Amino acid sequence: MTKIEFNTLVMRQASSLKMYALHFTHDADDANDLVQDTMLKAITYYNKFKEGTNLKGWLYTIMKNTFINNYRRFVKISSFVTKSDDISSANLVFSSTKNQGESKFIMDDIKNAMSKLPQEYYVPFTMYFEGHKYHEIADHLTIPIGTVKTRIHVARKLLKKGLKPYDTACKKVAYAELD
């Protein structure tokens, strides 16, 4: 059977396919879409059809599977996407609290606070932050380990003071979550 003959046979089944599609969708427009999808798949995969078998049954199977797959896709998308105009505050908090712009401002503030550290505190703190051990920092700077620990401690206190607005903002968010 040629592709043109096959296409003609499929097109003759359009009216019965539409009735079957209405059984699934209960809507004329959705039924037309389902018939169109079914016919497109049948014509695309005509080489999978075995001549001498039931064409109508094959088309009905394609339609049923297409409807089920579309339904599953719709359910999956509906569970992830909020379609209402009134988005809950929980969804707003989730979508608006973490973004790249805010992170850039925070990183700029951290870099600014670190640049204000005196050199004697900045070097040991950055080395420690990069993963060096206390004894490695002490050896590199040729100072005692106790001095390294003290300078890192002082650097932390200075950074905490310089980044105080973030500390109070975090506390407000934590208290708001408890309410």
- Give the DSSP E fraction (strand runs of 2 or more residues): under 5%
Q: Count of DSSP helices?
A: 10
| Low-pLDDT residue spans | none
Q: Give me the secondary-structure category.
A: mainly alpha
User: How large, in whole angstroms, is the Cα Rg?
Assistant: 34 Å
What overall geometry do the principal axes of the alpha carbons give?
Answer: rod-shaped
Main sheet properties: none
Number of strands: 0
Order of helices and strands: HHHHHHHHHH
What is the end-to-end distance?
72 Å
**What number is the mean pLDDT?**
82
Determine the fraction of residues in helical runs and give it as a percent range.
over 70%
Features of the shown structure:
mainly alpha; 179 residues
Structure description:
The protein is mainly α and 179 residues long. It is built from ten helices and no strands. α2 packs across α3 and α3 packs across α4. It is rod-shaped and about 90 Å long.
Topology:
Layout: H1 3-12, H2 14-25, H3 28-44, H4 55-80, H5 89-96, H6 100-115, H7 119-129, H8 134-141, H9 145-162, H10 164-178
Helix pairs in contact: 2-3, 2-4, 3-4, 7-9, 8-9
